[in-house]
Design goal:
alpha+beta; two-stranded antiparallel ribbon
Length: about 110
């Protein structure tokens, strides 16, 4: 059986680090859920390191509080956070791919 995915519109609340974004997820029927969403298939350096601070700073150039995005998820991570892809901008760019392409995360 193929994994079921959920695609939901969301609003960026804050960039936590290079691979964790706080999102206000619109689950439908006037139900909203604010969560720290983990970006799938990438790993960014931890904040409080030079590379981690640079990754967060770069991520904040891509995503601003209030930005409308799309979150595509199939499961929760081991800490219970939504895990998935984040699509942003009018062209639906892949946030994780952009972080890897610009050297601020590694693909996993």
């Amino acid at each position: 059986m193929a994994a079921r995915t959920w695609t939901v519109p969301a609003t960026v609340v804050d960039v936590v680090d290079g691979d964790t974004i706080r999102l206000d997820l619109d689950l439908g029927w006037h139900i909203r859920y604010t969560a720290r969403a983990r970006i799938a298939a990438i790993n960014a350096p931890e904040v409080r390191t030079l590379a981690g601070d640079a990754a967060r700073a770069y991520a904040r150039t891509l995503l601003q509080p209030g930005d409308q995005v799309t979150f595509v998820s199939a499961k929760l991570d081991k800490y219970g956070r939504p895990l998935g892809r984040l699509l942003y901008g009018t062209a639906g760019r892949d946030f994780g791919a952009d972080m890897v392409e610009h050297g601020h995360a590694t693909a996993v």
